[in-house]
Design brief:
124 residues; mainly beta; 7-stranded mixed β-sheet; 4-stranded antiparallel β-sheet; 11 strands; globular
């Protein structure tokens, strides 16, 4: 089992920045690909970004490309999401997820391990 706990959410003005973190415990963190999803109330949970266990490969949704950066520190069992140039439409609950492969992070329901989420609100 892998337990995931997100932190760093909050309220920020449009154009501002936030950094989300996800702390993992349990099995060997470095064996897993990690990702972030988000959900706007009333909409489906959507993929935001993912990073391979090797750190070399990262993937982003088109809506956040160039503004968000995913990173991980395997020695500290953490994955982060740096969010810059935030927009009101980025307002959502952000969730961390882990899977043995990047393919497993294509959809929320397919991710093997999932966190409880942290709220991000961007005011206009």
């Amino acid at each position: 089992q892998v337990q995931l706990v997100e932190s760093g959410g909050g309220l920020v003005q449009a154009g501002g920045s936030l950094r989300l973190s996800c702390a993992a415990s349990g099995r060997t963190f470095g064996d897993y690909a990690m990702g972030w999803f988000r959900q706007v109330s009333g909409k489906e949970r959507e993929f935001v970004a993912a990073i391979a266990w090797s750190i070399i490969h990262t993937y982003y949704a088109d809506s956040v490309k160039g503004r968000f950066t995913i990173s991980r520190e395997n020695a500290k069992n953490t994955v982060s999401l740096q969010m810059n140039s935030l927009k009101p439409e980025d307002t959502a609950v952000y969730y961390c997820a882990a899977d043995t492969s990047l393919e497993g992070l294509a959809r929320w329901n397919e991710a093997r391990f999932r966190g409880q989420g942290t709220q991000v609100t961007v005011s206009s």
